[in-house]
Amino acid sequence: MSTSHTVQQGEHLSGIAKKYGFRNYESIWNHGDNADLKTKRANPNVLYPGDVLVIPDKAQKTANCATTAMHTFHLTMPKLKLRVIVRDRAGKPMPNTDCELEVEGEKYQLKTDAKGLVEKPISPTAVNGVLRVPQLQIEAPIMIGHLDPIDVDSGLAGRLANLGYYHGDLQNANEDELTSALEEFQCDFGIAVDGKFGPQTKAKLIEVHGC
Q1: How far apart are CA 25 and CA 20, in angstroms?
Q2: Is residue 156 within 8 Å of 126, Cβ to Cβ?
Q3: What pLDDT, in 10s, does the model give residues 10-56?
Q4: CA dist 106 to 31, 45, 101, 109, 122, Å?
Q5: Which residues pair with 87 in a beta bridge?
Q6: CA–CA separation, 29 and 66 (whole Å)
Q7: pLDDT tens-digit readout, 84-96
Q8: Which among 89, 125, 159, 178 could disulfide-bond with 209, CB atoms 3.0 to 4.6 Å apart, if both were Cys?
């Protein structure tokens, strides 16, 4: 019998699927009872506290095989990737830059690509990370799964904070500070400066931030 799961802060679907014993989060995401939530949330790994997921029963699969031969079965298991764009203090992406990524105590020596992107497959249960950029002499904590959807104030504030525009409380975003951050972002990217989160500003923020 299916059950329901109420999303908590910091949870994402890959981790939730792992918790309930699913190798592939799509078994949950594509279930018909989750259609409304799937329409509402564009990214299954960017959910909002209070969202409710229906967790279906796990279905057994069978295959007809000859008993006198050896058979190989391949399981599809989507990988969860941590993706970060490294920017200099002027906000420009830093290509081919050495970085150290630490996730749950494991350290990885990485280099950004031509667009300043660094990415690493991680465990779906990972929670904490740190990105170190020696060239900038910075050490940035990473809270995996804590980015809220862009259509709520905390998600808007989180993206603006990641880009260096907002410096206030993410969960209780100050309206005046958020408006000021939006105006600065709009000014930098050639959008009409009105401090409002309209379609053009939203599209550009998704483009620049990456999600």
Answers
A1: 10
A2: no
A3: 999 999 999 999 988 999 999 999 999 999 998 999 999 999 999 99
A4: 34, 22, 8, 10, 10
A5: 93
A6: 34
A7: 999 888 888 999 9
A8: 159
